[in-house]
Amino acid sequence: MTATASPPKKRTELKNRAVSTTVARVAQRSRARSAPAIYDVIIAGGGPAGSSLAWKLASQGVKVLVLERTKFPREKVCGDFVEPRGLRILGQMGALAALEATSPLPITHSSTWVDDRCEYSNKIPFYGVHDTLLPHGYIVPRHVLDTLLLEIAAKQGAEVHYESYVTGFTWNGSSGRDGVTVEVQSKGTSESWRARAIVGADGVNSVVARTAGLLVNDARHIALSQRAYVTGYASSLGEAAFFFDREFFPGYGWMFPMSGGMANVGVGILKETCQREGIAVPELFRQFFEKLKASHRACRQLKLFKPAIGGIVKTYGSAGPNFFDRGLLIGDAGCFVDPMTGEGITPAMESALLAARVLTDALKDGNLDASALSIYEKGHRDYFGPAMAFTDLCAATLRNPHYWPSWKNAIVRGCRLAQHDRAFAATAGGCFGGIEVQPVGILAEVWKKTAENLIALGPISVAELTRGKITTATAALQEGVGWLTDSWKSVCDDPVWHAIWALEVQGKWLRAVNYMARGGTDPRTQGVLQESRA
Ligand SMILES: Cc1cc2nc3c(=O)[nH]c(=O)nc-3n(C[C@H](O)[C@H](O)[C@H](O)COP(=O)(O)OP(=O)(O)OC[C@H]3O[C@@H](n4cnc5c(N)ncnc54)[C@H](O)[C@@H]3O)c2cc1C
Hints:
Layout: E1 3-4, H1 13-29, E2 38-44, H2 48-59, E3 64-67, E4 81-82, H3 84-93, H4 96-100, E5 109-114, E6 117-123, E7 138-139, H5 142-155, E8 159-161, E9 164-172, E10 180-186, E11 189-200, H6 207-211, E12 222-231, E13 239-244, E14 251-257, E15 263-270, H7 271-277, H8 281-295, E16 303-304, E17 309-314, E18 323-324, E19 327-329, H9 345-365, H10 370-373, H11 375-398, H12 404-420, H13 422-428, H14 439-466, H15 471-493, H16 495-518, H17 523-526
Helix pairs in contact: 2-5, 2-9, 3-9, 9-11, 11-16, 12-13, 12-15, 14-15, 15-16
Bound molecules: flavin-adenine dinucleotide.
């Protein structure tokens, strides 16, 4: 077997070569305990992405090896919120019954808090409207979820090696025509395993992505977070609470209740903002936790069950090419997290199912070149693009902290409207909570309500004037002036940053509009179609 670096065809060609060469040298030095078996697919990482891919491939008779760095059960920093589309996949995998045996608290309600005031508290309006989806989410601790899913993959026939850290891989033969050799450190021993293809499901700092020259690290699309499990939640209502505040804008705090008075509590904020404003996320968490206890009646007695720990997400806005010769990236390794909500469990599993289809076909055809696997890129853009181009646009727009006062007013107004107008809540709330992001519908609804407000403004102001009051007209004027003032503050603070940001927002508008022009429903509502080519 000859291990050589194939000629990579994408943007990081030189870096890629360097990494591959280093890996090849490491491989020569190591005491290789090479196994004769050649797998069809080696999956690095056994989180939700890796296990659902392993399950799907194994169920189709593909010979799969999962290499997982840790020993399960293990903790993973996460909000643990699995929304109905994710539960649907867990149902397909046969995991739901086992999870429900642990009596998780169904999440049916949400509340939105702005500067410590509850502005919205009601049923999640877009849950329960689709026949194929459960009308609730669950908060499932990751040591439970991930362990269960990887066990299911193993039962389906996937081979799983725990405590096996993938350090890199090389392409065998010219252009990887003889597959890949994957280098592993396992309990102090160096191993190498061969496969026809490799999939990076190894999370945000993916070794597979780095080796393939595809690792992205863009502070504009990274959120830094801290989360902790707490006890003392004094309510049996499954109401997920979201907190918006100047201190953690652009970002949010959350409190996700679980059964038995426990809750998952955390805060996340954009890395770029942390760097520019010198924000320390652990301190942010401390402040948030105190505010949460002071403002939320059911949280007065909260106590940390364990100290808070930090984690990061890389959002879909930075997803680059996620395919290469003999391989694909899925889940966090491929940046599939929703840019607004930070949800990544469901997209990780969805990207795995998309990848399974591509790999099964490519294995049948005997062609695992980057050109053949590029169909995965088109597949995930078609699937995630319509919703995520819009949420990425929203996230980019919110990236400028100078606009907090104006956004705050807009969020408060939207929440108050949603509290009474369920049709508005169901449509406009779609980008916060997982289901059916319909950009055209959301924008139309927001613009309709804005127009209604503007039209009503005249008569209300005249009526108020006759009673000697000018509240409504003054508030509207102040709001208009507010957006302008925020813009000036931003320009004066850092004109270059402002100009680049404004251009980026425009670019994302064009991309989102392009998707909107195509029309149709959000493919994520229907889910990934299961069949590969016959
Ligand atoms: C604070 C925080 C809160 C979040 N809250 C939510 C939420 O409420 N809902 C939601 O849907 N998403 C949430 N997310 C995002 C979610 O956690 C991820 O998107 C999800 O875990 C992605 O799954 P994955 O399988 O791609 O990666 P991971 O879950 O990261 O799994 C990767 C696996 O690969 C293993 N691994 C890593 N490197 C190697 C290697 N070199 N070799 C072998 N194995 C390796 C790891 O041990 C791990 O088991 C949150 C994230 C954070 C940080």
